[in-house]
Amino acid sequence: MSELTTPALRAEALEDLLVEQGLFAPEQLDAIIEMFNERVGPMNGARVVARAWTEPTFKARLLEDATTAIAEYAFEGGQVDKLVVVENTDEVHNVVVCTLCSCYPWAVLGLPPKWYKDPAYRSRIVREPRRVLEEFGLEIAQNKTIRVWDSSAEVRYMVLPQMPERLATADETARAAAVSRDAMIGVALVQ
Amino acid sequence: MNVRELNGAAAPPMTNGELAFEAPWQGRVFAMANALCDAGAFQWSEFQAALIDEISAHESDGTPYAYYERFQAALEALLSRKGLIDRSALNARSEAYHQRPHGHDH
Q1: Is A98 a catalytic residue?
Q2: A101 labelled catalytic
Q3: 3-state helix, strand, coil in chain B (%, to 5)
Q4: B65 interfaces chain A, CB cutoff of 8 Å
Q5: Taking a contact as any Cβ pair under 8 Å apart, which residues of chain B between 11 and 50 contact chain A?
Q6: Partner residue opposite B12 with nearest CB, options A32, A38, A111
Q7: Best exposed site among A24, B23, B90, B104 by fewest CB in 10 Å?
Q8: Which residues pair with A83 in a beta bridge?
Q9: pLDDT digits over B32-70, tens only?
Q10: Which one of A2, A17, A28, A34 makes the best mutation probe of the B interface by having the most chain B beta carbons within 10 Å?
């Protein structure tokens, strides 16, 4: 990249050249950006989690084949071939990473947070998950197993967190609102 | 349920404390990769492989980490390999935009 040009200028030049070649129209880019800014995000995954907590048949389908189980929602944000949902239990805590780049289940969680793409998280969560989770403020009991799931272009993971007791009597909207993005990556619990 | 009615952690990206993109150009580059994949210019797995190459090359040379710059470089590399972009034309166009008088660089 030339020292004189910024990434922004280079992106503009690239876009204009590709538009001139007829590969896409600028309005298509506007639509994709709007989709990720407004309609694709962790609220989608939260709805799935809230339903799985109280509908055992849906939860079973979700854990068996998440790609098919969420198809009925028709979430936007493609480029994900296969979604796998892993369940937190009293014995196992799950956490998700992409060690090589930034693979992430866009359709259910939107785009990844900055720290998810950071080299430190990507390498350390595999080597010392307990310690990294502590840095997120999440202490996992020593007798609990931590499983780290490495996402790839083919398979993306989402964590099904445990439902706290206080949500047992809440309605589905309130339950969904309590499910954070970080809980579905596995670096937090649902409070 | 309308997502705009959700609050707290389940609110849409724009209102849950983290923007999808930190700068407009990052959104443009991200959207370009998606639009090109939709148009059949490449498979997403091909782009992913190019991104992994860019990221690993830069993590070993110690330069500060800038994700979307790697993303953009990966896209350029893949398009160049596919014969869909001419790097010298891209350099020339970027340079021309840089030379624009202020007030025209938006």
Answers
A1: yes
A2: yes
A3: 65, 0, 35
A4: yes
A5: 11-14, 16, 18-25, 27-32, 34-37, 39, 41, 44-45, 48-49
A6: A38
A7: B104
A8: A156
A9: 999 999 999 999 889 989 999 998 888 777 666 788 999
A10: A17
Chain A nearest-CA distance from B20, in A, is 6
ipTM: 0.84
What residue ranges do the domains of chain B occupy? 23-98
**Residue A155: helix, strand or coil by DSSP?**
strand
Q: How far is CA A93 from the centre of its chain?
A: 16
State the span(s) of chain A assigned CATH 3.90.330.10: 41-185
pLDDT at B18 over 90: no
Looking at residue B20, the DSSP 8-state letter turns out to be: S
- Min Cα separation A94/chain B (Å): 20
The per-residue pLDDT for range B80-90, each reduced to its tens digit, is 999 999 999 99
- In this structure, what are the phi and psi dihedrals at residue A130, rounded to the nearest 5 degrees? -60, -40
Contact in structure between A112 and A41 (CB atoms under 8 Å): no
Inter-chain CB proximity B75 and A14 less than 8 Å: yes
Q: Label residue B64 left, alpha or beta by phi (over 0 means left) and psi (-120 to 50 means alpha).
A: beta
E strands along A9-142, which residues?
82-87, 92-97
| Confidence at residue A2, expressed as pLDDT on a 0 to 100 scale | 45
User: B25 Cβ partners below 8 Å, 6+ apart?
Assistant: A7, A8, A11, A12, B68
CATH architecture of A41-185: Alpha-Beta Complex (3.90)
> Which positions in chain A touch B19 (Cβ < 8 Å)?
37
Nearest residue to A96 via CA among A189, A188, A187: A187
Residues, chain B, total?
106
Question: Residue B28: what residue type?
Answer: R
Phi, psi (deg, nearest 5) at residue A149: -110, 120
Does residue A116 contact residue A98 with C-beta atoms inside 8 Å? yes
